[in-house]
What does this fold into?
Amino acid sequence: ASVPKLPARSHRPKQQLGQSYLSDPNTVAKIVRSFEKAVHERGGSSTSAVLELGPGLGALTQLLVSSFPRMVAVEVDPRAVEILRKDLPKLEVRLQNMLKLNYSELLLEMGGPCFVVGNLPYSITTEALLSLVLSPRSIRFAQVMVQKEAAERMVAPVGSKDYSVLSVMLQAFARLRQLYLVPPTAFYPQPKVVSAVVELDFDHPTTEVDVGVLLDVVKESFRQRKRALRHSLKGYLQKRRLLHFGGHSFFSLRLEATALRLEAIASRWEAIASIG
Ligand SMILES: C[S@@+](CC[C@H](N)C(=O)[O-])C[C@H]1O[C@@H](n2cnc3c(N)ncnc32)[C@H](O)[C@@H]1O
It folds into this structure.
C-alpha cells in the first residue's frame, strides 16, 4: 500500500489550523458521492448553494466544483487559497475565517439556504458546528467530517456521558446521523484518531429564537452538569434579568443539564430567548 504523503506543490501542514489533508482518493470519492446524493435527495441540484468549509488543498473541492459550479469555499490559510485559485480558477474561494462567516448574508448572496460540506479542522470543530446553528435558517443541510469523539458528542443521546452543549444545540435545530468512519490512513499527516462523517438536516424554527442567548444559557447549564438547572442557572439568569421570563415553571424543573432537551422545554426557551 502506498504511504500517504504531502500532495505535490503543497506547503507544510500547520497543526494549529488542523491541517490534515485527505490523501486517499477512494475516501475522497466516497465523501463527495455521499454529499452529492444527499443534496439531490433533498431536492437540491447542480445550481444549489454549496459551501465548503476549509477546502485546504482542494482534495474534495476539485470534485465538488464540477458538480456544483456555483459553490463557495472558505479557507483561512492564504497559502492554500493561492494554490486553490491557481488549480481551480472557476472556483470562488474566500480567504476568511469560517467562524466569522455571516450565514444570513450568505443566504441572500447564494439565493437560498446552504448545503454545507467540510472536513473540519479538529481544533475548532465545536465552534464551527455551533456557528452553523447560530443561524439555523441559513443552512439546509450539512455533511461534515470530524474526529470520532466529536461525532459521538454530536449524536449523543440525552442522559449519556457524551451529552454536551454541542449535543443539545445541534439536536435542537437539526436531525443528525453518523454515516461512516474514516481511518487515519486516509490522511496526510495521519491523525492519531479515527474520523467520522456526520450529516445534519436542519429543521427551521418557526418562531424567532435568539440562538446566541440560548447558547449562553445552555453553556452555563453544563458548567455543573449534574446539578438541577433551577439551582445551577438561578444566579446566572438573575444577573441577566432573565429570571422572570422563564416563569416559575422553569425553576420547578428538577432537570439537570444532562437531561436537557430544548424541545422539551421549548416554551421556556422561547421566552428566555426572545429578550436577547
Ligand atoms: C482537516 S483540513 C481539511 C482540508 C481539505 N478539505 C481536505 O480534506 O484535505 C481543515 C482545513 O481547514 C482550514 N482551516 C482551519 N481553521 C480555519 C478557519 N478558522 N477558517 C477557515 N478555514 C480553516 C485549514 O487551513 C485546513 O485547510
Remarks:
- Residues 17-22, 54-56, 59-60, 74-77, 80, 97-99, 119, 121, 124 surround S-adenosylmethionine (CB under 6 Å).
